Amino acid sequence: MTAIEGWLEGGGALCTGQEHIENVDTEFFDLSNLRPDYNVYKAVYSLAYALNDMLHCKPGTGPFRGHSCATLQTMEPWQLIHYLQNVNFTTPFGDQVSFDENGDALPIYDVMNWLHLPDGQIKVQNVGEVKRSGFKSEELTIDEDKILECTSCPEDFWSNPQNDHCVLKKTEFLSYHEPLGICLTTASLLGTFICAVVLGIFFYHRRTPMVRANNSELSFLLLVSLKLCFLCSLLFIGRPRVWTCQLRHAAFGISFVLCVSCILVKTMVVLAVFKASKPGGGTILKWFGSMQQRGTVLALTCIQAGICTAWLVSSSPAPHKNMQYQNDKIVYECAVGSTIGFAVLLGYIGVLAVLSFLLAFLARNLPDNFNEARLITFSMLSFCAVWAAFVPAYVNSPGKYADAVEVFAILASSFGLLVALFGPKCYIILLKPERNTKKAIMGRLTINE
Q1: What is the pTM of this model?
Q2: Is the Cα dihedral 433, 377, 257, 269 positive or negative?
Q3: CATH number at residue 370
């Protein structure tokens, strides 16, 4: 039975000559992958070269026993393999075809470059090859003109989504133009304005018993220091500069120490006046005169100024580009320089605040005409609570939110002191003038300042 008869018996059909080759579904016509076809091509040509060498063998000079040659009629497979091992030719595409001592074809590996196209597809491009010669040496060939060249973007730039050019990284800092910055700026200016209004009220009514009984000089100084506290929060908003980084914590630390020092001295004066009202206590007031009060506030503030100076000289805060937070974003922040310096600055404010709270707490039950100690107790309690909550919130806040937390703590504590210490007094001065008399202040009336 011939092959054609077997094909027909198996259900095959003869060609009519009217078939279209485009409609034939076979792997040999799949143009999307020509590698198998190319291998078949090289195999056929290898056999052709081997047979050609065998047919050109001259009797008496052959490679086999007795220098014989092989013929097509008597050829054995091992004889053909002998000639295959010696095949060495180059295809029209530049590929060298040869075999090793085991009859295996020498491998050729393509070096492929994977390209990510803008439409999301991936294109594989041949940019070189690795091949082994008959001497077992490997040769790498790279066509550099076919590579997509990759270069690193500069420090302030980031690769675009298509990875074909560099774009400027986004910058992040607490800005005056964003809602958070606008709210904090408004609160700061509002607090400054309220301080100015209260200062005007106290100055206008400076000769009244309420203002004079509450140590008007320290009250004026306290209002000025609170105004500075509100204003120093503005240094934390906006792009960090060298001068803002150096000034923000120094201004904040000195302003708050000046404020807390005034409160501490006021509390000490309250206790001294009460002690002086008892028999044999008259001499204690000479230690708390106007000069002594101003000197104490100045000395306590100078200590903080010395801490800030040492901090700025040894390890000054400076602007810092934080690129570790997000790869495609630059977070501008002020590096504190010395963490110890920052901790000492905050710690000194905390010591004065706690001392003021303890003294005011001891004096909270004094007679009503010295009732300012109750207001100081409440104000310092809120002050300490705000700054105790500030530390963990500041440490765990990333980027610009760390500055926002610090500004919020400054504003919250400043508003707490302003409302607690001066709210009740302004209420009496403006709305209850009948209680702003010497008789009411020195009498036994219950005065809720």
Answers
A1: 0.65
A2: positive
A3: 1.20.1070.10
